[in-house]
Structures are given as structure tokens and as C-alpha cells.
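Researcher: Hi, I'm a grad student and pretty new to this. My advisor asked me to get structures for two proteins we've been looking at. I'm not sure of the right format, so I'll just paste the first sequence and hope you can take it from there.
Model: That works fine. Here's the first sequence with its C-alpha cells right after it:
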Amino acid sequence: MTTTGEEHVTARGGPWWWARRRSAALDVGLAVASAVECGLEGIPFAEEAGLPVAAGVVFGLLAGSVLLVRRKWPIAVVLVAIAVTPAAMGFLLSIVGLYSLAASEVPRRIIASLAGMQLVGTLIVMFVRVRQDIAREDLEVGDWIVPFAAVTTSLGLTAPPLLLGLYVGARRRLMESLRERADSLERELQLLAERAEERAEWARNEERTRIAREMHDVVAHRVSLMVVHAAALQAVARKDPEKAVRNAALVGDMGRQALTELREMLGVLRAGTEGAGRRERASVPLVAVGVAAAAAASRAVDGPEGAEGGAAEGPCLSEIDELVGQSAAAGMVVDLSVEGEVRSYAREVESTAYRVVQEALTNVHKHAAGAKTYVRLAHRVSEIAMQVENEPPPEAASSARLPSGGNGLVGMKERVSALGGVFVSGPTEAGGFRVSAVIPAS
């Protein structure tokens, strides 16, 4: 992770106000060099001012050592440099102090003011010094040489450190801004990754539920019919051998269909996992497997011929007659009625309507064996409605003792709600049970 700001200081901290030990060593070295320079320049200053040499040396040492605090108090360093300029000392102090001031976070107007004072002070001192030197050496030069030398020297001592400090300060602020932005982006990416992981987990759970619902829809109905036929076969095996043979044939056909559907679904799941493993060398996302499983479940109702043909067609309303006929063959009395003009709908609408009727008939086999059942379909202008209602089962009717997971009604409601429809189920006043659903046509 990128380390900036206070974290950077903490990671590589130095003594006192320095961010790093290397910075402290540099400032100490500059302060020693400046103190030595100012101490040596304090000797002629003391002689000219009529002061003891020791006083001039001590004054120079104290003035030059101010560079030690150039990072913490750059304004104080520049003010000291301006103050000692008339004494013709502190050139290193002036250059480094002005650079430190320009590179700091001090407002620009203060930097400009102090730099102007430094420029004017250096200009005046150099003008006087050059003029005195020329007079002392008794040189014959033009009148222009004195101001030219003073201006060029003052600009040379002021402009380069000022411009360099402004550049370094701007670059430092830019780098800090980029580091902060990188840290912010990293935190955002981490947050997005956490949210993506949560969404992936939610999607996996949703697909697990979806796969379980598809397995329940395509298998439970046929297995329930197989159990009903097996019970009938046991009852008539000795009394009516021909009927027993027919029931046995029906059980065999339904068993083969159920196995075919299971084989297709598991085959698609296995193929999807192996394909994703070759492409990504990682575990396949359950979302992709769920989509493949849903496609397999939709094809499963059409039998092996439909699967081999490659058509990704799921159950449709035109197969309701066959669905009702299978229940009738199992001994259920089913009355099918259709209202309105029969027309085609979107594939998911027809598949959901078929599954609702299929699950409702399966529940009748499980919980109300022998009860008369009414299946009604209504084709309306902008929706399709379906209702499956059974009468109370006869008291003499034997229960098929089929297991129930209690998820059939929940699965139907989820399917219908996902398409924006309405699902209602519950017992009737007569003692039966009613399942009703309305699905928008588009």
C-alpha cells in the first residue's frame, strides 16, 4: 500500500521536526558549513566595526547555525539572512534560506515580500561594496559597471534559489496529491472488491436456490407420478394383470424420463465446470453454472429428442394438455378449461405458467390423492391467469405418502414475482386447496 503524509513520517521518522534522519543530517551539515562561513566572515566585520574579533566570530557562528531550523521556521532563517546582509556575511545562509522558504507551504505573498527584501538588501550592499572596492583600487571604469555588477550579483544570489524552491515545492505538493489520490483509489478499489465479493456470494446463494428449484420442478412431478403408479400397480397386480402391465409401463417410461432429465442437468453442470476450469484454471462461478442448469432444466421437459435437437426450448402452454393427461393417467380426475383467445407469450412467461400448473398438480398427488381437480387458464389482453383448485379428497382415498420439502409454493411465488406477477395460494371454504397466479403478458 502506498505510504504518504503522516503514515510516511511514522514509517521513516527522524528526530524532532525532521521527517527522516537523512534530512536531519543534511540540515546539520548545512548549518555547520554556514556557521563556519559566517564565523570567518565575522572577523573582517568585527575589524571594520571596531569590535573584538571573538565577538564577530561568535556573532557569525550564531547567525550561520540558524540553518538548522530552516525546515521548521523558514521565515526566521530568511529574516536572519536579511539582517546579516549589511555585514557582508551569510551568502550560504541567504541562498539556502530563500530556497527553503520558496519550497515551504508559506503563502506566496509572504515569499514574494521576503524575496524582494532579500533582493533589495543584497543590491544595496553589493552596490556599496563594488563602489568601495573600485575606489580603494583606484580603478578607471565606466559609470555603468557599478550598478551592473550590483544588479547581476543580487539577481544571481536571489533568483536561482527562489525559482528552484518554487519548483521543488510545487513538485512535492503534486507528488503528495498523487499519493493521496492513489491511496483514495486503493481504498475505493478495496471497498468495491468487498462489495463485489458480497454480490458474488449473494449471486451464488441465488443460483443455488434457482438450481434447487429447477431440480424440484423437472423431477418431483414425474417421481410423484411414479410413486402413484407404483401404488396402483401394487393394488391391482393380482386382480387385473393387464392394468398392472400398463401401470408398470407408465412407471418405466416416467422413470426413464426422470433419469434423462437428471442426466442432462448434471451433464451441463459438469461440462460448465470443466470448460471454465480450462479457460480460467479456477473454480467455475456458480452463476454461470446456474444459467447452464436453467437452460438444461428448460430443455428437460421436452425429453431426449428435444435435447438432442439442440433447441433451447422450455415447457410451454401448449404442453398443458399432455401434463393434465399424465395426471389423469395416474388416476386423478382433472377438468381443464381454457378461456380467451389462445396465443403465444414470451418463453419465460409460458415456462413459469407451465411450472405453476405442474407444481400445483404435484401437490394434489401428494396431499389430496383422489380429489377432483380443476385447471383453468384465462388468456387476457395484457396478462395470463391460471388457477388449480382441488376438492376435498375422498375419505376412503389412500394417501400416497409422498415426501414434501415445503418449498413448492415458495418456488412458485418466487417465479411469478420475478416476472412482476401475483401469486396466491391457500385452502378453500369447501376444504380443498387453490393455487392462483396472474402473470403480465410482456
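Researcher: Oh nice, that was easy. Here's the second one.
Model: And its structure:
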Amino acid sequence: MDIVIAGAHGQVARRLTRLLAARGDTVTGIVRDSRQVADLESDGARPLVLDLEHADVGELAAGLRGADAVVFAAGGGPNSGIARKDTVDRAAAVLLADAAEAAGVRRYLLVSSMGTEQVAGGATPDGVDEVFVAYLRAKLAAEEALLPRPGLDTVVLRPGRLTDDPGTGHVMLDRHVERGDVTRDDVAAVLAALLTRQHHEGVLELTNGPTPVEDAVAAQL
């Protein structure tokens, strides 16, 4: 497969790139900082330096042509403010969707977050930091902008709290699961498995659990 990953220098994205490259897929990694090119090349990706906060649809679509799927794993980062939660976590995800449609790429995997339902309908959850509320709102808005599009086959993956523990290879994956932790290794493994399943669409929540990754993904078909 030929796969394009937006936010390719992120921790999950780099793990995903290495998995895909190891199984023989072609990976293009989108980053905005040219200083990250060497890291992407060492992971096995072909770097595309492009700032998704300032690129236009045509410019991005040119980098997607011929791809089988796109993965949005970009984010404003833990130290970014409210404004960048919107410009990256929402607007850049929508831009990638627009460009994918323009380039004729149907398969779209959006890495979102558990907890987005807390801000549905404009709700503000108690005891949650305002920046994290903005993050959840941006993720929910991206989900709502992508899922209805008939030109895309979209899977929204909502991981639980991410950890850097070694991957277990076992997860809980379903439309709704109890909150919990999940390793970044296992998130990447689930994304890699989902990319081979061309007929699944919709929202899936993910934590570590008892089921082998491949079995958990196959059960969602």
C-alpha cells in the first residue's frame, strides 16, 4: 500500500511508519519542520515538508495523488494553546480530507481521542482544563466534519490515555469501551491493521485489553 501520514514526526506516527515500512508499504510522512526529515527517513518514510496550517488544498492534494490511504496523526502538541487546537486538530484534519477527496483517496484514518463525547452539544465538562476542552472540541469537530462525507471511507480511532509502556499486542477495540490506558505501540499496531481493512468505517474506541490486535480489528468488520 501507499500511505500518507500527516504529523509524521509524532510518537504514534513514527511507530506506525516503522511498522508499515517493515511490511513493505510505501509511506510519505508530512511534517512542517525540515529538521525532522532525517528522522522520517530513518523510519523508512519519504518526507514531505508542508505546513498544514498554511497549505492550500491543491498543494496538499499534489502530495497525496496515487496514495491508497491517509492517516491524520498531527496535533498542536501538549504545549500549544487553544488557538492551535483548532488550527491543527480540527482545521488541518479537514484540509487533509478536502485534499484526499481532490486527489481521489478514499481511505482516511483520523486519530482522535476518547472523551470527545463530553463536549458534544457545546458542553463543558467539570474539572477539565480549558486547553484540553478546546482539544476535545477540535477533535469532535474534525470527526463531525469527516464522517458524513460520501467521498471518504473514514475510520475515527479514539485511543484512551497514551503510555510509553512496551506494546502488549492485546487491546479492547469497539464502538464504545470503558476508559483506560493504551500504549502508543498498540495504537500504531491497530492503525496498521485497520489500513488493511478496506471496508470498515465509523468510530472505534481503543484501550489495552485481552484481544490480539488482528482479532480485535477483524471483529469490527
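Researcher: Is there anything I should tell my advisor about the second?
Model: You could mention this: The domain at 2-218 is CATH 3.40.50.720 (Rossmann fold).
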